[in-house]
Fold these 2 entries.
Entry 1:
Amino acid sequence: MATLDRAECENRDLSDPLREFRYEFLLPEDVIYLDGNSLGARPKGAAERARAVIEDEWGTGLIRSWNTAGWFELPVTLGEKISGLIGGGAGTTVVTDSTSINLFKAASAALKLQAADAPERRVILTQRENFPSDIYMLQGLADQLGDGYEVRLVDDTEVTAGFPNTLTDEVALVVLTHVNYRTGRLFDLESTTAAVHAAGALVIWDLCHSAGALDIDLAGAGADMAVGCTYKFLNGGPGSPAFIWVSEAHQDRFAQPLSGWWSHENPFEMSPEYAPAAGSRRYLTGTQGILSMSVAELGLDIFGRVDMAAVRAKSLDLSDTFIELVDTRLSHHPIEVVTPREHEHRGSQVSIAHPEGFAVMSALIERGIIGDYREPSVLRFGLTPLYIGFAEVWDTVEALRDILDNRLWDAPQHKVRGAVT
Ligand SMILES: *Cc1c(COP(=O)(O)O)cnc(C)c1O
């Protein structure tokens, strides 16, 4: 193997089959953007699309645009595009609401299925290290249901081992985030789903940190339901709506508590009687933000032209390169690579821990290298294969080396925290 230096990184960029996709995004010239796992980059056409929605569809079309501009169909139109990326199958996915809200709907519906089939099961398992909103939503749901429903937290090691200790006959539902947001640990969709099913429980996957980063086959894995967001790897824009997927097997019995008019079989009948729509519209609630949804479509359309196997291959090359450079060039500093080194356990980010993590990240951001920081002491670098290259990984690790060697993080401006880290 060639020596890993900047020239070799440039060579890897030159032979990168995804290189051209970088030009689909607008990023500032002087920035290396390693936070696309938190807020994806802006697709080139975003401003033009927003302008067209405001001036033409809203300004001129006015209310007619619900029909003539396809507004009413957007949750399904975009859902079909996501479905292609997550192996959902036709008619199973919609884009709507936020991940937190969709998780509440999916978990409610899953518990209702279990209440009919196995009413003694009242426990929800989820990862202790899950993104906190997922845990909070499940706790809120369990409180709302009362009646013995409870959330139990399990360690990531327990999940990876196939739940040797916790998947008892009290468990109704297991909610798992596919890639740990902090460490980047990836859980195996297929074998984990099989383990949950073998114990008589249902599984909901949260794909926030894997949709658009990995090849996913929900239907092939036999999963029950899934949720995820579009503003991270899918580049939908700040606060763009999330998605919800329900397997064909459960679709007809999917009953959710947020049963607003958009989930009705005939919303404009204005009937006082609720009847759920057939198909994926039954996961909806009410009117959606059309501006945000319209812009989110651009990110999905880019993915429509991408080979996800190539994305995954480049993602692993990028993270291997990052880890190798940290190992070889930063070994004289107290740095620990938190992200698993085995490919089968790694998502699309590299997280490293340093005792002064917050200040170090602040110093990096000051020079235009944007990652983020998560408690405790973790520097996170999202690797988005569509617009990040190998030379940028090299430059990032070299900047880190300079900051650490010269203690550039040890300055007052790097100790001040904003509301969002
Ligand atoms: C980003 C993320 C969310 C965000 O939820 P919102 O409702 O969009 O705020 C939820 N769960 C996981 C696992 C995430 O990574």
Note: The domain at 6-42+307-414 is CATH 3.90.1150.10 (Aspartate Aminotransferase, domain 1).
Entry 2:
Amino acid sequence: MPDHVRITLDESELPTQWYNLIPDLPVPPPPVLHPGTHEPVGPDDLAPLFPMALIGQEVTTDSYVDIPGAVLDIYRMWRSTPLHRARRLEQHLDTPARIYYKYEGVSPAGSHKPNTSVPQAYYNAQEGVKKLTTETGAGQWGSALALATALFGLECEVWQVAASFIQKPYRKTMMEVWGAKVHSSPSEVTNAGRQIRAESPDSPGSLGIAISEAVEVAAGDPDTKYSLGSVLNHVLLHQTVIGQEALAQLAKIGETPDLLVGCTGGGSNFSGLSFPFLREKLAGNMNPTIRCVEPAACPSLTRGEYRYDFGDTIGMTPLVKMHTLGHGFVPDPIHAGGLRYHGMAPLVSHLYEIGLVEAEAIHQNECFQAAVTFARTEGILPAPEPTHAIAAAIREANRCRETGEEKVVLIAVCGHGHFDLTAYETYLSGQLVDYEYPEEKVAEAMKAVPVVAGA
Ligand SMILES: *Cc1c(COP(=O)(O)O)cnc(C)c1O
């Protein structure tokens, strides 16, 4: 049995291409539609918001895309990220399972997000864009884009969801250190923000609202484009460096996973880890179960409908087919801010629909309990989002203790929780609430989801 606790790669072993899962799928995912005509969108529809290079990656049918040298140079500042064997957690759980985790918290921003913010800033800078706007839920994406825009000399303006703006003031400071301008969302500086504040002055905000604000500002200025931290195909593509590294790291010690678990907000860290393994699964080289884990208070995959819906709250984006709780749904202010999104990546939704991935939903108290166990055994204090994946892995490890199965479990630990201590404090003092699934609020929000003929 291998006894490694930390597996890294040499620089010469780092991936030099991103992997595109789409050409390998048995059924292609449905197209993105224009909200007015309900016809598939073309490059011109997306050009006001995104640079051409990223629009090309959004629809590419190539299996591999070369990573530009300038992006590789920055990746090398912290990649490869370590793959750990969670030996102390295994011993604590007294499980025969072998538990591994891929840790993305070693990036300068503290999560997997710079894997895509860096190429996004690079391609925008190449095409002469001056400023990027974006939303941030947990503050991780805003930090990652602020870092990347600083490295490529672009301006950056961020709408941070109000609930997180209040819970995590130091995330704002971090973004400002990297030169970004930060607003609490809903804000007074956009029509979308003013409209939401007029309807509900104490709105905790949501990713959908913050996206509306950032898109509005980018659409109104030819020198400004918009940057999205999850959900879109090109974002998932960039994140595949995670899984390609993990495959190589496991191969070094002769291990093959039986189960992969990752938390899903918009689906990017989960996809980044799992797509290269899914490639191997589809090729018949291994057969891992691949499981999404989502918050019980915002369970888009396990409870949402598979429908065409808007990516933002106001309804400015194209229509994407995804598992959705309704674009107007504002989730309860759980601490995993990165998982408070009404929809799921269209590609992950498609995989769930065709049965290539499964999903489960977990309440936040079980997640924080798992996180504290993880911190006391493995030392790492995870962000609230990956605590969902850790909780799911612990559930599986406990099942293995009952059955005696020696499963190999791989967890996506996609960020650290050093700015999330308010959440830990709330948990440790016994005040963390488990929000019930808000059936009525979702039913209300679903009424506004557009009806697309034949879809
Ligand atoms: C943004 C974020 C998430 C949620 O986004 P995904 O696209 O689902 O990965 C989860 N965890 C962390 C640490 C994040 O920063």
Note: The longest helix spans residues 387-403.
